[in-house]
Design brief:
Layout lengths: L5 H12 L4 H12 L6 E7 L4 E10 L8 E9 L8 H15 L5 E3 L6 H9 L17
Parallel strand pairs: 3-4
Antiparallel strand pairs: 1-2, 2-3
Helix pairs in contact: 1-2
The structure holds coenzyme A.
The site of coenzyme A has 18 residues, from strand 3, helix 3 and helix 4.
Length: 140
């Protein structure tokens, strides 16, 4: 990922989520795109001219009592570039980098109703893991 890719990434994210979050993406770039750490990954798929997808993730140690593992935080492919193997190649690439960083497990979290991303991750071999998410309202 290069700084010059940022505006295309913001546009892809806005297509998927309906929100343009410029400040958020600038801080994500600083943490993941420009870190120089193998533990922090921000990868793009491009055609040579334009960005068609991206994946972001990080190796985290001992959080939730878990031995170090790779987390995939986000993966998005431009709608017109989907179902052509781009998502698979992005996930393969980040997993290869996680292996290089020394971990042997990858995890992610997804919206219960997001059947598209669930189908994708299942197709890649991901299964329900040993952790469950919990939440509660904090009120005002
Ligand atoms: C999920 C996503 C990344 C997949 O990217 P992609 O480039 O289309 O994926 P691939 O072409 O590599 O597809 C791999 C497999 O995923 C599954 N898959 C992909 N699109 C699918 C669809 N529309 N319906 C069902 N399964 C699908 C298939 O099993 C496919 O394998 P196949 O082509 O042999 O059938 C892409 O659809 C996307 O960006 N969706 C929105 C993501 C999102 O909601 N992000 C927010 C949370 S992070």
């Amino acid at each position: 990922m290069r700084r010059g890719d940022l505006s295309q990434i913001i546009a892809i994210d806005a297509t998927v989520t309906g929100l343009e979050k410029r400040d958020y993406w600038r801080s994500i770039y600083q943490r993941y795109g420009d870190s120089g750490h193998v533990e922090r990954q921000f990868l793009v798929a491009d055609t040579g001219e334009r960005v068609v997808g991206f994946v972001i993730g990080e190796v985290r140690d001992w959080e939730f009592g878990s031995p170090p593992c790779g987390w995939v935080f986000a993966i998005d492919v431009k709608p017109e570039s989907r179902q052509a193997g781009v998502g698979t190649r992005l996930l393969d690439a980040i997993c290869a980098n996680f292996r290089r960083a020394g971990v042997r497990k990858v995890r992610t979290m997804l919206g219960r109703d997001n059947t598209l991303i669930l189908s994708f991750f299942r197709s890649q071999g991901m299964m329900a893991g040993p952790f469950i998410p919990l939440e509660m309202d904090l009120g005002t």
